[in-house]
Design a protein that fits this description.
With 464 residues, this protein is of the alpha/beta class. Helices cover 32% and strands 27% of the residues. Helix 7 links the parallel strand 10 and strand 11. It is globular and about 65 Å long.
Amino acid sequence: MYDVIIIGSGPGGYVAGIRAGQLGLKAALVEKDDRFGGTCLLRGCIPTKALLFNAKLYQQFLHAKEFGITYKDLNLDLKVVQQRKNKIVLKNAKGVEFLLRKNKVETFRGFGTLESPTSVRVRGDSGEEKTLEGRHIIVATGSEPKAFPSIKVDGKHVITNNEALELDTVPKSLLIIGCGAVGVEFGSIYARFGSKVTLVEMLPQMLPLEDQEVSAELERSFRKQGIAVMTGTALEKLDIKKDGICATVKNSTDGKTSSIHAEKILIAVGRSPNTTGIGLEKLGIQTDRNFVLVNDFMQTSVPTVYAIGDIIPRQQLAHLAFAEAHVAVEHVAGRHPRPINYDLCPNCTYCDPEVASVGLTEKEALARGYQPKIGKFPFQANGKAGILGEPEGFVKIVSDQKFGEILGVQIIGPHATDLIAEACAAINLEATAEDLAHTIHAHPTVSEAVGEAAHAAFDLPIHI
């Protein structure tokens, strides 16, 4: 009898296993893949960011003469790029396997389904079955790319992020449907590798969940880089040709249609929870649009069964799954975990320029009845950003005019996904914009822009 059985070894599942071992619980983990780590490690966060780094490095070499560095020949070998990416993924997967073993988590290979509120059936590739008994179960089965019902992913002309990660040649042209994190990240990768990239988004702005000013700045930067962006535009029809695809798109403002020809089309319209066929209906677990409903401690409508990560109706983020795993396991262990404040979960998009945010946008603050006071500072005025040759973007701080408390921070620019950590800590500690302004930031660093934005909330920035 196990204290907890975990289905899935993605960011939520493997962290749940490790935490369970640390707390002295007897844990079992079931994984259908031949490696641990889930989508994030094997087909998402880690390999995508590896390709993004290569793309950025290649772009820097293309502009090396601006920095006084000359060379005779410069070539991109995508096969070698892929080999490096795969090496990184393999190392991380082995690391997860080691950590599970170190924390005495017993692992089982196969497809796990809920048999009862306290048992999981594991079916191996060869058809053999085994039933595991446990006092609690944590379901962490992750998600998969959404697809249009009428469009078949053939892996050649029509691809998802899974296939986009494995290309061994750079497509001459690439149409991307969807301007969320996946779409803009792959747009950055392949545009820098040399593809003619077109991004199409049905909603009025890129990165629809981000601040409007941030999205507008990203669109401006993408256009400057030669990436075509079509917002407020929907895919109407797709024809597969021998040499690629022909897409018909329609603008929602004027109703006009246009045709886009490309070698490949990447469908990046979100992700669907992997909840089909895992036994939720058998146990009567409540769902909504295939997402599992949970309480503050990640318990489903069946108290012994918990759900975390991409299968619950929250942001589908690896670091959020980490946090949810801690809450679920600590609740299983009889501790009293603090429920997650989802407003304080940072969003990070690793396109170029990077985008990161935490807390409320200006629009959201107004909607919640606050009187927001804004402080904004451009990286154009930051010395370190100039040294890096990355002067685009800004830091925007949204604070409460009445009490000065920081409500949200949005960043677009160099190292935005690292800089957001300071904002996360500040908001979590209920700091004010004045507190942040009085915090000494080292010079020269891009983090100075955060301090300057705090000063700007009082109309007292130094360097603009």
